[in-house]
Amino acid sequence: MIIFINFVKSQLFYIIFFSTILALYRIIPHPPNFTPIIASAIMAPFLMKNKMVSIILVILAMLLSDLIIGFHPYQLVIYSLLILISLVSPKILKYKNLFFYGIFSSLLFFLVTNFAVWLAWDYYSKDMNGLILCYTLALPFFTNTLISTIFFSFIIKILSTKLDKLNYKTYYFFAKHEN
Question: Considering its fold, how many domains does the chain have in total?
């Protein structure tokens, strides 16, 4: 337990940073599907060096914002996808790999979530034509998902050195004032 508490203390800045940014970004007005949530699922394991804590962080941010904006029938699918993306995200990310991982994650998110929409809602007929229509009408959302995932992943990667320094300073600030 003490090891976990020390780890959380050492990652306090990331926990506050990601939780706040992700929850706020989902709540404030933004273009549909243009959020940093998939990028965070990709980048949190890279920054935090602990997949389980980074998964908890991304899911917690989603949960906090969903408490405000509401839940829907395929919420579990989205949470599961974000967990999967974080689990397979490498701890070492080069820019070229980050680009391809952003494409892969966005495509996986598009395919699975729209299949869930097709299953859960009565908007589309439950045949191949309905499934194709569901995917076709979702293409503009996929564009935003793809662009935002790559954009935010690269922003986080570019800022990773500065974020590491802020995390380090936060940890030592609280460690110094702990007693």
Answer: 1
| 123: helix, strand or coil | coil
Distance CA 61, CA 19 (A): 5
Residue 94 lies in a domain: yes
29 contacts: CB under 8 Å, gap ≥ 6: none
Express each pLDDT in 36-69 by its tens digit.
999 999 998 888 878 888 888 889 888 888 888 8
Structure token pair of residue 74: 């395929």
Question: Which structural domain range is residue 165 located in?
Answer: 2-174
> Residue 25 has which token pair?
């970004």
* pTM for this predicted structure: 0.85
Question: What's the residue count for the chain?
Answer: 179
Find the CATH number of the domain harbouring 93.
Answer: 1.10.1760
